[in-house]
Amino acid sequence: MGGAAGFGRLMGATVFDAVLLDVGGVLMYPDPAVLAPALSFYGATTDHAAYFRAHFAAMAVKSADGAPESDWSGFDREFVSRVGVGTADTDEAAHVLGRTRHAHIWRAAVPGSRDALVRLNMLGVPVGIVSNASGQVESVLRRAGICQVGDGPHPSVLCVVDSHLVGVAKPDPAIFEFALPHLDRIERSRIAYVGDSVTMDVGGATAAGLVPVLFDPFDDAAHLFEGMRIGSLAEIVALFGD
Length: 242
What we know:
Elements: H1 7-10, E1 18-21, E2 28-30, H2 32-40, H3 48-65, H4 73-82, H5 90-100, E3 106-109, H6 113-122, E4 127-131, H7 137-143, E5 148-149, E6 156-157, E7 160-162, H8 163-166, E8 191-195, H9 198-207, E9 211-215, E10 228-230, H10 233-240
Parallel strand pairs: 1-4, 1-8, 4-7, 5-6, 8-9, 9-10
Antiparallel strand pairs: 2-3
Helix pairs in contact: 2-3, 2-5, 3-4, 4-5, 6-10
């Protein structure tokens, strides 16, 4: 990974006291073990690394389109193209992707995600989760071994805010109000929110008064956002200490 690597540290005048994280495209992404068999029928590669790469290219298209949470059409077309589906099969493959990309298959761990949470725990950094989801995200994170709320065998977070359960979704800034009480009255301007969508995550965090940090490991969204971008969660850890 990495054209954006180091960018967060270059903007290192920003000091945070806490961090909130998105899940999709930051900690987890759609499981290639599910998507590859469905899309290989249309000529797509079965190389799982290509599916990780495709996610961020497709998310940049979704952001550039300004598409709401309910519209993944541009994402789907870009995604299938990136994994090798030819032009003649794009429409059908994109339809299949849209039908296959269920909330519960966002379960493949982004490389380094668990390790970053372990390090943030060791540094004593307050960490929470705020995700547009379908009621499943806390159990998926726990089952995948990424994190859990409170003490246990996995890295600990203070809260998991699931949009389905709280009734409000990004980019509506109100979703963050469910996480902020867990951060012990830390000023909003000293809380980073890490997400992979300019529209949903940057827009929502900015409106909430938080500092948006775009997870952009391949520089796909460099032309869409002039603020802080990172190429790995290790860069967030580095902002709190070595």
